[in-house]
Write a structure and sequence with these properties.
- The protein has five helices and six strands; from the N terminus they run E-H-E-E-H-E-H-E-E-H-H.
- The chain has helices at 28-37, 76-85, 109-124, 143-146, 148-163, and strands spanning 11-13, 47-52, 58-64, 90-96, 129-135, 140-142.
- Helix 3 crosses helix 5 (148-163).
- It is globular and about 45 Å long.
- The N and C termini lie far apart (55 Å).
Length: 173
């Protein structure tokens, strides 16, 4: 299946290979290989949503361009609205680092907090976020795998704030 050129914010159907085992995404490097086969280049700050089926095979993708209104990426509501329209069973978010183009980088607390919010939303909606990858031209970081402890703390804090926004933290530990 060939796709016609569309604006970056439109959904794109994905052509599956003849064998579903060839297009399965099992690790972060598989995502990079998949994006290279599609010849996708992610501009700095942009985010791509990969929709996967129950066998971890891509069924669709969606590009979210960088906007100053949402510098961390699309809102979790936008991510999951698109995922449901693509009938995804699992998700992977791939973000290009907005400022560091080459070399090692460490995700900021805001970026980790955003990944925790998306992961928590996926758990609540029974549409798991398998991974949130951040990359630049030379490096790749898995926010869910490499920063699991920090993400758990951010998700706990976020869920407590959403459950009761007037909650006062009595014990800072």
């Amino acid at each position: 299946m060939t796709t016609t050129p569309r604006s970056p914010t439109m959904m794109h159907p994905v052509a599956l290979t003849s064998s579903p085992h060839q297009s399965r995404i099992r690790r972060p490097q598989d995502v990079l290989l998949y994006l290279r086969t599609l010849r996708l280049n992610i501009p700095p700050g942009d985010t791509i949503l990969l929709a996967l089926d129950q066998h971890h095979s891509p069924v669709g993708r969606h590009s979210f361009p960088y906007t100053p209104l949402h510098p961390l990426g699309p809102t979790p509501q936008d991510v999951f609205k698109i995922a449901f329209t693509q009938r995804a069973n699992r998700l992977i978010l791939v973000s290009s680092h907005p400022r560091i183009r080459r070399g090692a980088f460490t995700p900021t607390d805001d970026q980790l907090n955003y990944a925790a919010q998306c992961s928590l939303a996926g758990q609540l909606l029974n549409l798991p976020l398998v991974d949130h990858l951040m990359l630049n031209e030379t490096e790749l970081e898995s926010l869910l795998l490499n920063f699991h402890d920090k993400l758990s703390r951010y998700a706990l804090r976020y869920s407590q704030q959403q459950a009761n926004p007037l909650l006062i933290n009595l014990c800072p530990n």
